[in-house]
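Dear Dr. H.,

I hope your travels went smoothly. While you were away I took the liberty of generating a structure for the chain from your last submission, since the lab meeting agenda had it listed for discussion. I wanted you to have the full record in hand beforehand rather than looking at slides cold. The sequence, exactly as received, is reproduced here:
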Amino acid sequence: MSKISEKAENRREEIINACDALYKTKNFQEITIKDIGEVTSFSRPSIYNYFQTKEEIFLGLLTREYSDWADDVTEIITSNETLSVDELADKVAKTLEKRITMLKISAMNLYEIEDKSSLDCLKEFKIAFKRAMEAMVECVTKFLPNNKEKPELIQYAFFPFTYGIYPYTTPTDNQKRAMDEVGIAYHAISVYEITYRFLKKILA
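The corresponding predicted structure, in token form, is as follows:
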């Protein structure tokens, strides 16, 4: 990597880190390019040298999250010779427990973010997403080799399921109040627990 490209990559990471920090205290609609510029070491106009829209910054953050998740799943594959369904569900659930930002963006704003990002940024994200999906399929194929349907369930059931994890585990006070008033029982459940239960169900 050249010094120029390395410098550019470092600046992109600084912008993404700023976005990540802001997203922990503000929602997607509240965060602006100006906000992100105020917590980086360079001016707001300079951000446009690296990202054309706020959505591209969020997509960069999501790309990093999926890449890190793929690494965690790959670690499960390389560190274990055999795993039972229960053990596999446990380990995968623990990897998602670390990816709250990924789950939140995917559930809340992914469609809009993808629509307002350049093709190059979107392709970079899809590469990371594909890595994560392939790692999960490889994981299931290695540890549950006798069931040919399980990899397909990962692709067409588990991945769509992940988009609902964040809102299901993190309802707002207003949502809980509404459920209470219409008689819907709310039971608190963690990212780990809902993921573990779902995986045990579809992999059994």
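Two observations you may find useful: The chain has a mean pLDDT of 94. The domain at 55-203 is CATH 1.10.357.10 (Tetracycline Repressor; domain 2).

With kind regards,
E. W.
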